[in-house]
Amino acid sequence: MSAARAAGRLQLAQFRRGVAVEMKTDGTPVTQVDRDSEALIRAALERTTPGFDFLGEESAPGGKVGPHASGSRWIVDPLDGTKKFVRGLPFFGPCIALERNGELVLGVMHVPAMNETIWAERGAGAFLNGEPARVSYESSFERASIVWHNDQEFHERGWASSLDPLRAAHYNPGFLDLYTYLCLAMGRIDGVLMLGESPWDVAAAQVIIEEAGGQLTDFKGDRTVYQGQTVATNGLLQTVLLDVVKGCR
Q: Where along the chain is Mg(2+) bound (predicted)?
């Protein structure tokens, strides 16, 4: 957690200070704060866990990334929510996960502007600022608070109609990056539907949500963060949301 909090302090020092923004080849924004945060986190992790591999958003090779079948690898999004960060919104921060022999075993998400840090270790539970984290007990699709994002990509893939049940039931569109997953793990919302994410966007969240009692899968229901598809819920609503996206495969 110390690496995440150190990166958070770096980010807060530049928050709402008009940082310069560049665009990556994939059309997403990046700042020097993203790069500096990754360098800081990587250096801290290499000091404490020499020999572990490292996969970070700002230094990742091009092409599709798959599971790390053997050994240990850190998976890092140094500043999740860059768009929010540059617009002065507080929903940003570092996400750090540890993958061991293909299984995600540790996750940390730190939201410095809101002074909230959530973490989990496989088999040891999830905690927000030291207090146990627990997903909601909502089992009704009609009453549930579901967050989804990236309508454009659903449209581009011809899957727009899959979102109709969500729109018809007056669910809450919008996405606040890592903070959305924190809210799910704390029972503040009940489900998340996302398309187009990279492993570093969701690796830490999978450990945290599962240890808080929920589930996070791809659209097929597989426990993977490598397909760019996310269905995450309190567990009671997982089958329902998977049914919503059953045509999106």
A: 57, 77, 79-80, 201
